[in-house]
What we know:
The protein is mainly alpha-helical.
Amino acid sequence: xxxxxxxxxxxxxxxxxxxxxxxxxxxxxxxxxxxxxxxxxxxxxxxxxxxxxxxxxxxxxxxxxxxxxxxxxxxxxxxxxxxxxxxxxxxxxxxxxxxxxxxxxxxxxxxxxxxxxxx
Length: 119
């Protein structure tokens, strides 16, 4: 193929492609609008919760328990981080009766609040 033929072949869609490109952009915009409408129809009432950062003291045994629970979840194909585990635990406590929850809370060892001194 000669250079002039290649150039004509490559330039042809660009010269006549204004309407083709506009048509493609129009289709893409239509699809994006439909997607946004579908998402808003599915979850119109879901609001983003404000995230609060906090720190707390935890015995080493509970910290290793968290790691063990994370590994159990991973074996089942569910990736979970420490924050998600803590929130799952809170949901589990919340779903219990008050007497069950109090029994578990009373069984915990009381810890001195604050940071331990580093020597």
